[in-house]
Fold these 4 entries.
Entry 1:
Amino acid sequence: MDKFVIEGGHKLQGRIKIAGAKNGSLALMPATILAPGTYHLTNTPNLKDVWTLSKILETLGIFSELNGDDLFIDTRNINSTFAPYELVKKMRASFYVLGPLLSRFGEAKVSLPGGCAWGPRPVDLHIKGLEKLGAEITIENGYVVAKAKGHNNRLIGNKFTFDISSVGATGNILMAATLAKGTSKLSNAAMEPEITALARMLVKMGAKIEGIGTNILEIEGVDELKQCNEETIPDRIEAATYLIAGAMTGGNILLEKVNPYHLSAVISKLEEAGCEIDVNNDKIQLKMENKPNPIDVITSIYPGFPTDVQAQWMSFMLEAKGITKVTDTIYFDRFKHVPELQRLGADISVNENLAIINGGKHLSGAMVMSSDLRASASLVLTGLVAEGITEVHRIYHLDRGYESMEVKLASLGANIKRVKTDLI
């Protein structure tokens, strides 16, 4: 097991390159199941989740190799439609293989997923959507067993409205609909950049999709798709995390290879907090000279303020003198980082999905435990400004979504080291 040891009090200065989006790659990789061929996915982040999904693809008979940020995938020899519990349990995005397998082969058996240890995130929307496309689905011994009931074991186009806007379910059903017989219309679909990027890749493969970038997607099924190469979009959550880290430390940082458009809500809030931000094509420069203003945030679906940045913003507001409110409308159980932040001196109270931060208090280093991916990031960011030494344990959560965070932060002047530990 590894931990981070951080000495607080160092301003961040310099430049870093933002990696490809974790959630972007985890959508593009299963899309390769839809058509036999060799794929080259560039700007792929070297993350634990990417490796986990690669292992799942390999169990299906798919070759994958990550060389730097170049991911090579060969789907010409798929020999299984079974995704086992041992791998799928490690992350929820593994469930993405269900739609493509079912659509191309007419059947699939995929374990119910695992992932972060917070909040109810059921897969019922995935199942309901696939049933609307003509799938017969049963749950057997912890596995989703699906079969297409149409002619020649093919899915059938249909209309489906998501009860809530779900990125995972939208991606899964979108992929399934590309090879379904007839036309499908998906309403209240997720509009996140990762879904838009997936749709654009599918179009390059020969899919017929209208409404890309909106919450209504219309898909005219085709008989077959073809191989293509694609570049993964920049990771907007990683970018937001480093922008907040720079702001918290009163730093001056430049992010390169980023898409500012995907960060509009975060940039707007940072400017309200007093940050000076300059956007130039695929670069964002942030300067912060004073303590931040206390700025409330309410998370919402894209293009609103991301739930994946809620924990980091809470850390930022610990530096603001006064009362700040953080409301998460997406998930109602995503404040497990709060008790750990309190160990560092944070004054935070929680009532259901509302956190109230009394900022400007003295923060001092302590040993803290990560509970999930974004909680890990909030603890690291707080450690950057806390007096003394902070140890962040269970950073395997963080490794799921941040590529070499300690290396990037150290290059900006942070005093942070990755150290082996026996503590579980």
Note: The chain has 14 helices and 24 strands.
Entry 2:
Amino acid sequence: MSAQPVVTEDAALRRLIDRVATARATRTPLQLRGHGSKDFYGEAPRGELLDMASLAGIARYEPTELVVTVRAGTPITELEAALAAHGQCLAFEPPRFATVPRRGASEATVPRSGTVGGMVAAGLAGPARAAVGGVRDFVLGAALLNAHGDVLRFGGEVMKNVAGYDVSRLLVGSLGILGPILEVSLKVLPLPPARATLRFESPQAQALERLQRWAGQPLPLRASAWWSDMLVLQLAGAEAAVRAAVQSLGGEVVDAQAAEQFWAGLRDQRDEFFAAAADAVNAGATLWRVSVAPHAPPLATEGEQLIEWHGGQRWIVNEADAPTMRALAAAAGGHATAFRGNKSAGAFSPLAAPLARFHRELKSRFDPNGLFNPGRLYPDL
């Protein structure tokens, strides 16, 4: 693990360092938050607010190098707009989870996306995850504020720089329990030159079989979604490859504007399935995020299901208890997360003893006083 303390005169960062110093002196736990778009995720937030939103802006961007370094409080939408101006994107399509600001009457109706720091801390990826990889695959380096008020930098801004590389990637999905992420360097990719969306009427078992068969073929398959006996595919890549795949696969071609709205709604979890799931959660159900091997058969459980990532991610909304859902996921070689709703048995599947010990040791190494997001990932961390 390689880390170098960094001296800086940045005012926003200085305020964060001073706030952490005060919290350490008074043993006050801190709740890390950018725009609060993922307050629902994981265990309930605890501690006094440490507002990361002011630490915003793109620090460095080299379009020709396909690398951007951005501060943690930067809205994802702002970063994506800057990348799109150069024909580039965050290929893993992080959900943006727009929220309404809590502060200032003049901001009351202005939605904001999630922030880059929250994007890394949560580690959530969108529909293209199965084709291009997840957040962890695109993180090149990161800066972290530790409990002693030191700014530590891990990794770098190029793929060949591997010093501390594993540590910067380790921050992905940590939900802030190791400390505030201050800045990240990300690999970006060019926008695909061509896209097409196809729709097929298909029961679940047939849809899963088709996805596995197509995955073994040289097709520009970028994303897939199945719900209510309808399978939707997104093709992306070179124009000739997309055109040939459309002719080969058949199905109904979806209008480009409607397709864009569909994939954006799925990515940001505001389409019909997630809207219905929100109503069910309000009535007492739980929205489960079940990760399994793509070739796993249909999961025998009650409730509505939405399947993404060519079968690897299955959203299920029902009133089943946690032991039932986690046993079901384990039997399929995966695990189940209580994404929204009842989390009385924990948001995430319990860790095996050796892995739990590793988590505790890592937390102790970075945050020995337990200041940052206590209990957010697991109740005892």
Note: The longest strand covers residues 194-201.
Entry 3:
Amino acid sequence: MSQHETAASLLRRLRREQGRSLRAASAELGLAASYLSRIERGQRTPASDTAERLAGFYGIEPDLLSLAEGIVPQDIVKILQEHPHEISNLRRKYRNRQDS
């Protein structure tokens, strides 16, 4: 996942990488093609159960969709709140990687 990829563009990219058409993917997922299209264009946010189905279908962690939208899972927020020194550790460890 690139730094600036949205959940919509991530889903579209994954579908295309797997060689699926929008109609084929929507049929396999049991979704209307128009609904999946709106999700992939960022015009609709999928409900949590749909997001989990999409993540499973494309073989990714559901949290990646949230992270693509800048939403950090609550369990991770709690961990960082309980261990704030880890924020600095993460920045040190990964800062140079972001510049690549």
Note: DSSP finds seven helices and no strands in the chain.
Entry 4:
Amino acid sequence: MRYGRGVMRRTLAVAFTLSATVAAAQEGSQPLVLHGFGSAGYGKNGTDNNHYDSSDPRGDYRHAIFSLSVAAAPMERLRIRGQVMHVETDEEGEPVAELDFAFGEWRFSDALRLRAGQIQQPFGIYNEIFDVGTLRPFSFLPKGIYDSGILAEGLNGVGVAGSRRIGSGWGLQYDVYLGGLQVEDEPLNETIGGRVVLETPVTGLSFGASGYSGSAEDSRHSVLGAHGEYLAGAWSMRAEYVHAWLHGDVKVDTAYAEVARRLGGNLQAAARYDWSEQSHPDMARTSADEHKDVGLGMNYWFSPNFVTKLSYHHVDGNLFAGPEDGSPALESTTDAVFVTAQLSF
């Protein structure tokens, strides 16, 4: 059973997704900024009937997305942002469009910015750049944290954010938010959460913690996480751990570690281990509650804005790999190959 669905990396992330720093710097000379990013690929696995991400036994090429992000600065302190995504995923290959976020931000100073509307949910490393494939080494994000229903991309409410230097080589970034969000098909009310990131004097090294809690119909949904990131030279290394309490009694533990290195020229090699397990009271754990994904990848970067990716994944467990119709999985292991092209501008 599925329990439901961010220094160089930050500089690139804000450039591609119109984050506060870049847009604010462009307010005077370029009040309207437009960016987009997309992904399309093919996935195939060797099971009889398991599906895993965009792979199935017959081969699946119907998973294409394109997102358009716009930021405007009609006043010196005011910035407005929005993003829509167009995705092709259903059985008939019909396109689906959705709003990721749309909000206004008033900048009092670098240390205090107020946001209101459908804001992005700040959590961990990747949640605010969820669909930007050119900012990660694998075609898809670690499933236990970012594709399991633990998080939402947008939150209807208000938030404050800021950053400041706190010493020689040290920096602090923070986000705090309040409102309601949709996790899978479950609305969460009275949600409060935040994230803090500490930048160290070591170039490219940062650590952070995130968390939030919201009220469901008859229980609370609470999530806590910690992450570390190192990006310098040819290396990129990231790791995260999350513990979640869902529906009042389901507990989830999930973590991943990934490393990637440029090999010279345009090639990049990558490896990732993604692990998840969930527990129910008074129920024995089965393969449907477990997930282990060992992934190996090789990427060819035509430019920082266009990359092709080839990856192999060996998956143990059926938490995320299984029949689409919800029937019991015939096989507890899945071997899948993905070929993807991802772009941004």
Note: The chain has three helices and 16 strands.
